[in-house]
Design brief:
Blueprint: H1 2-13, H2 18-28, H3 33-49, H4 53-66, H5 74-91, H6 96-109, H7 114-143, H8 147-164, H9 169-181, H10 186-198, H11 202-216
Helix pairs in contact: 1-2, 1-3, 2-4, 3-4, 4-5, 5-6, 6-7, 7-8, 8-9, 9-10, 10-11
């Protein structure tokens, strides 16, 4: 149990510590369920407050991997975790395929779940209309003289591309445009960093992270 708490403390300090991440998945399986649930929830809340939804999803996966059918309320717990995971993947990480997969897993466990059904319906609707909304955001941003409004609109346009056409050049283009208008736009920087990491553009990623670190000083 001490090892479990220590690993969570390491990840609270450095959510990208790969060694701690790997070890936590193993240790979680031998941690008493009540301790596991309580401490993972507390760490997820802390990391969410620090703007690390990617780390939150990792911890949700850790708990899902440790959950056994023999635990009381296991099915309901699994559904709750998958719903939370799907919402974060869609709303904060903009990963529509992974979000859809999470919601579909919910329906396998609980076919009548209304939240999962509504979430999938909303994804389908957004997929049909995203281009129209992205174009509207870009048009309004180009005409806006309000710096805060413009960066938000470019960010919204970028998010539409990241969600439904992540390989399109516009995804990166509008993330950078949002940062150009407002260099302190942390959300745009977060998604740009994920984009660069996904494409293994390490030098550009290091440069971006260094710039973000300088802003915090």
């Amino acid at each position: 149990m001490a090892d479990f708490a220590n690993l969570l403390a390491v990840l609270e300090n450095d959510p990208d510590d790969a060694q701690a991440r790997d070890a936590l998945a193993s240790v979680s399986r031998t941690t008493p369920p009540n301790v596991r649930v309580e401490k993972l929830a507390a760490t997820r809340k802390l990391l969410a407050s620090r703007g690390r939804p990617d780390a939150v999803v990792h911890l949700l996966d850790v708990e899902l991997g440790a959950l056994t059918p023999q635990e009381p309320g296991a099915t309901d717990r699994r559904v709750d975790l998958l719903l939370e995971k799907g919402m974060i993947l869609d709303g904060e990480l903009l990963d529509v395929p992974a979000a859809r997969a999470a919601f579909e897993e919910v329906l396998k466990a609980r076919p009548a779940d209304s939240m999962a059904k509504e979430a999938i319906e909303e994804l389908d609707l957004a997929e049909k209309n995203w281009k129209k909304f992205a174009a509207k955001y870009i048009q309004e941003a180009s005409a806006s003289t309000d710096r805060s409004l413009a960066t938000g609109l470019y960010e919204s346009a970028a998010e539409a591309y990241v969600r439904f056409a992540p390989e399109a050049p516009e995804a990166e283009q509008y993330l950078r445009k949002s940062l150009e208008v407002d260099p302190k736009n942390g959300k745009a920087a977060f998604h740009l960093a994920r984009h660069l990491r996904r494409h293994k553009r390490w030098q550009e990623l290091v440069k971006l992270l260094d710039e973000e670190l300088q802003k915090e000083r």
